[in-house]
Amino acid sequence: MDSLWQYQFRIILLGDSTVGKSSLLKRFTDGVYSDVADPTVGVDFYARSLDIEPAVKIKLQLWDTAGQERFRSITTSYYRNSVGGLLVFDLTNRKSFEHVREWHREVTEHILPHHMVYILVGHKSDLIRERKVLRDEAEQLAAELGVRYVETSAKCNSNVERAFELLARDIYELMKMGEISARDGWDGVKSGLTAKVLYPAEEEAEREKSCNC
């Protein structure tokens, strides 16, 4: 049984086949790594909770999508109901980096008029000698897409936690600003039984000033 959570964010992992999306998820949710991984068929599901701030627990509902073209009709149906996306590429695979724009464009088109919060993830950072994508290139692409960039390694457990936490925090901050909210008929964000009422920073300050307690 899940412990109480204030909000649930639905997150989807995007990117070519073999970039390591499943490895990232298994490391993040189960703390394990395996050199042998079967290709994802359609969509796999994972879950884990994070404490974003005191008394605020966020449950992440994580969807691992297949990167192969033949599963695209299945995975596209999951785009619209997601609030966050990790755009994952393999630092040792130049083509997977070049395909990031295509993934970003495809998802953006399917979720209109809504928007998704992204983070760009360069995976397999432990394979230094096999690297085909420079950090500067990846950071430039992230800047052009208006997203954060993180380099990770599921094998070495490097920055895996940070990648998911940064994305969750960005979504949470947008909720506090009123730009994202839970809505009927949309599974991107759901409120728990103990959901916290969020106010923009200015409004929160005014409420504190007017409080007589």
Automatic annotation (TrEMBL):
Q: What does UniProt give as GO cellular component?
A: autolysosome membrane; cytoplasmic vesicle membrane; plasma membrane
Note the Pfam families from the entry: Ras
Q: Which GO terms describe its molecular function?
A: GTP binding; GTPase activity
Name the GO terms of the biological process aspect: autophagy; Rab protein signal transduction
Location in the cell reads: Autolysosome membrane; Cell membrane; Cytoplasmic vesicle membrane
Q: Which SMART domains match?
A: RAB, RAN, RAS, RHO
Q: How does it sit in the membrane?
A: Lipid-anchor
- Output the superkingdom of the source species: Eukaryota
Presence of the UniProt keyword Membrane in the record: yes
Which InterPro entries does the entry mention? P-loop_NTPase (IPR027417), Rab39 (IPR041818), Rab_GTPases_membrane_traffic (IPR050209), Small_GTP-bd (IPR005225), Small_GTPase (IPR001806)
Transmembrane helix found in the keyword field: no
Keyword terms: Autophagy, Cell membrane, Cytoplasmic vesicle, GTP-binding, Lipoprotein, Membrane, Methylation, Nucleotide-binding, Prenylation
Ranges in coiled-coil conformation: none
Q: Which family does it belong to?
A: Belongs to the small GTPase superfamily. Rab family.
Please report the name of this protein according to its UniProt entry.
Ras-related protein Rab-39B
